[in-house]
């Protein structure tokens, strides 16, 4: 019997779907060209012709928010894929090998984890210059130890299970056991963590763009929109409200979705299980 979907899952999935749909639609259509300047229409409040108003250069805020969703989601997805693609194998390897290999990998992870994404982005951009690619690299590197520590901890708890001991007695190699028996049993946990890191990636991208280290003009970014709006918030509050709400709803939706997925993958949360 399929478990009942929680309210967190439904609300989180709905909010995430709205943001994702806006990003997908922006690939083909926006109400206006997000980079088009119209000085005569500058700082217009929300109206039927400009639902989210216009900024100090006459650009349509709704179009910029839609295109900014595309940028934020792309950065967060690639960064999570980098973290998961490198962190999970390292965590599984550490759990399987133990000894000096485990200690070496975990100490390197601790060293990387000690540098926040913003500090890492500053180091990277000091060498290669600001941009979305360097933001992706910085956030992705920060995600590696997160997934490595999670997968190692989850894998260690499974290596003592009877089915793993049986696999070891049948002369299966540690790599084969990790792929056939460990990884499938921690996939749900990794998916839940992936949604959380996805939301963190959106926040990190917005923060990096806010300080000028993320996506560069004319590519729109929620963080840079907030930076540009801070001096005009008193007489044009819509410039900060709409990108701020976009970040809020994205992060809220992904966190609620993560909570719902945790309930879905946790057998104890299902009906009929004590």
Report on this structure.
By secondary structure, the protein is an all-alpha fold. The protein has a domain at 75-239: Orthogonal Bundle (MetI-like fold), CATH 1.10.3720.10. It is 70% helix and 0% strand. The chain contains 9 helices and no strands. The protein has helices at residues 7-26, 61-97, 99-113, 117-128, 132-158, 162-169, 174-210, 222-229, 238-265. The longest helix has 37 residues, at 61-97. The two termini are 16 Å apart. Residues 269-274 have low confidence and may be disordered.
The chain-level structural class is mainly alpha
Estimate the helix proportion, in percent.
Answer: over 70%
Radius of gyration: 22 Å
Number of strands: 0
Biggest sheet descriptor: none
Secondary-structure element order, N to C: HHHHHHHHH
Q: Which CATH-level-2 architecture of the domain at 75-239?
A: Orthogonal Bundle
- Number of distinct helices: 9
Give me the CATH superfamily of the domain at 75-239: MetI-like
Poorly predicted regions are 269-274
CATH class of the domain at 75-239: Mainly Alpha
- The pLDDT mean sits at 86
Short summary of the structure?
This protein has 274 residues and is mainly alpha-helical.
Features:
274 residues; mainly alpha; MetI-like fold; elongated
Topology, pairings included?
Layout lengths: L6 H20 L34 H37 L1 H15 L3 H12 L3 H27 L3 H8 L4 H37 L11 H8 L8 H28 L9
Helix pairs in contact: 1-2, 1-9, 2-3, 2-5, 2-7, 2-9, 3-5, 4-5, 5-7, 6-7, 7-8, 7-9, 8-9
């Amino acid at each position: 019997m399929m478990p009942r979907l929680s309210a967190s899952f439904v609300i989180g999935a709905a909010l995430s779907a709205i943001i994702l749909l806006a990003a997908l639609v922006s690939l083909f259509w926006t109400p206006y060209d997000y980079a088009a300047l119209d000085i005569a229409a500058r700082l217009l409040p929300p109206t039927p012709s400009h639902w989210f108003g216009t900024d100090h250069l006459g650009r349509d805020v709704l179009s910029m928010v839609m295109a900014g969703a595309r940028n934020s989601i792309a950065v967060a997805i690639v960064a999570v894929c980098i973290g998961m693609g490198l962190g999970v194998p390292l965590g599984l390897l550490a759990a399987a090998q133990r000894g000096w290999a485990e200690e070496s990998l975990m100490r390197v992870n601790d060293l990387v984890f000690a540098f926040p994404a913003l500090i890492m982005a500053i180091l990277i951009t000091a060498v290669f210059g600001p941009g979305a690619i360097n933001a992706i690299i910085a956030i992705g590197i920060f995600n590696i130890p997160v997934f490595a520590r999670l997968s190692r901890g989850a894998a260690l708890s499974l290596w003592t299970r009877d089915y793993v001991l049986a696999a070891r007695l049948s002369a299966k190699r540690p790599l084969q056991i990790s792929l056939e028996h460990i990884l499938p049993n921690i996939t749900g946990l990794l998916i839940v963590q992936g949604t959380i890191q996805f939301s963190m990636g959106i926040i990190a991208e917005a923060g990096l763009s806010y300080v000028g280290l993320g996506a560069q003009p004319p590519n729109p970014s929620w963080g840079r929109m907030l930076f540009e709006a801070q001096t005009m918030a008193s007489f044009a509050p819509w410039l900060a409200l709409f990108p701020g709400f976009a970040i809020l709803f994205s992060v809220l939706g992904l966190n609620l979705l993560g909570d719902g997925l945790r309930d879905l993958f946790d057998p104890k949360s299902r009906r009929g299980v004590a």
